[in-house]
Amino acid sequence: MLEDRATAVSSPTQWPAAYPQGYAVVDVETTGLARDDRIISAAVYRLDARGEVEDHWYTLVNPERDPGPVWIHGLTSEVLEGAPLFADVAEEFAARLAGRVLVAHNAVFDWQMIAREYARVRSEAPVRQRLCTIALSKELGLPLPNFKLESLAAHFGVVQQRAHHALDDARVLAEAFRPSLVAAAAGDVRLPLLECRPLTEWSDRPVPRQASGGYGGQRTGSWRPSRKRPACPHPNPGRYEEGKRLKQGMRVAFSGDTSTERELLEDRATGAGLHVASSISRLTSLLVTNDPDSGTSKTVKARQFGTPVVDEAAFGQLLADVEPADG
């Protein structure tokens, strides 16, 4: 049972009627960040409408491939070999999510990893909305030095015992989410809920056996998200200037391969209030690419128009502190 952490805000007697009736606080550990990476462990804390814990659940998952950065999550091939496949836990996992808002720290990542796993087993996760605790922290104006989970935990006095362990990360997030939810309700703050749409058109294809001696011989796939990105509500303030902050409304384009999947980067940009552009024009504020000399049409046009260029790592740092739009 979670401790009832004291906060500066007491629970309001009049709870906002528009708030959800239940939440599933989720954390997944994965073999990596790319579109063909797999879940290797998952945890869910189910909370009621006011953030009180109902129960929790945890499972290992055999990814049928190399486990990836063991030095981060600590799960070796030997540990995962006897774990259930995702298909074996999909039904129970779904039961934990059904009818609830998925809550996670950087929720778009957890949601996309979960959605892909369900697509692989020709199914859909019963999730229609998600809530990112990073976005909620920004809505509440919490005085955090950054938006890492450890900083959010420290703000609410939550002690983290095993970082990058799905069950402990989910516990920590659940403990930090409850006072955040209470503060939002007391201030009648709109919760930053986003729609979750399932992935469609999954098709398997074989990939070569890994030379590193991992599981190897696995199959991966491709998909297309069934969604249309919403229009940016902010006016374009112009080009990004080196050394300054990004500003909501800026038009950002991406070119070339990225270590983080493109859809995730685009969702992060959209969530920060930026306009994700599919092409380069004189109005483009910034081009994000890890290979500015690649000669792609976007990098060529960026040079022609004098569009500022940054790499993926720099863009990630800029996203952590985006200046609000005027007005």
Describe this structure in words.
Residues 244-322 form the BRCT domain. Residues 205-242 are annotated as: Disordered. InterPro entries: BRCT_dom, BRCT_dom_sf, DnaQ, Ribonucl_H, RNaseH-like_sf, RNaseH_sf. One of its GO terms (molecular function) is 3'-5' exonuclease activity. This is DNA polymerase III subunit epsilon. The protein has 327 residues and is an alpha/beta fold. The chain folds into two domains: 22-195, 2-Layer Sandwich (Nucleotidyltransferase, domain 5); 228-327, BRCT domain (Rossmann fold, 3-Layer(aba) Sandwich), CATH 3.40.50. 30% of the residues lie in helices and 20% in strands. The chain is built from ten helices and twelve strands. The protein has helices at 70-73, 77-81, 86-97, 107-120, 133-140, 149-155, 166-186, 262-271, 297-305, 312-319; strands at 22-30, 39-48, 53-60, 101-104, 129-132, 193-195, 199-206, 219-225, 251-255, 275-276, 286-289, 309-310. The strands form three sheets. The chain has a six-stranded mixed β-sheet, sandwiched between helices. Strands 10-9-11-12 form a four-stranded parallel β-sheet, with helices on both faces. Strands 7-8 form a two-stranded antiparallel ribbon. The longest helix has 21 residues, at 166-186. It is globular and about 55 Å long. The chain starts with 21 loop residues before the first strand and ends in an 8-residue tail after the last helix. Mean pLDDT is 85; it is low at 1-8 and 203-227.
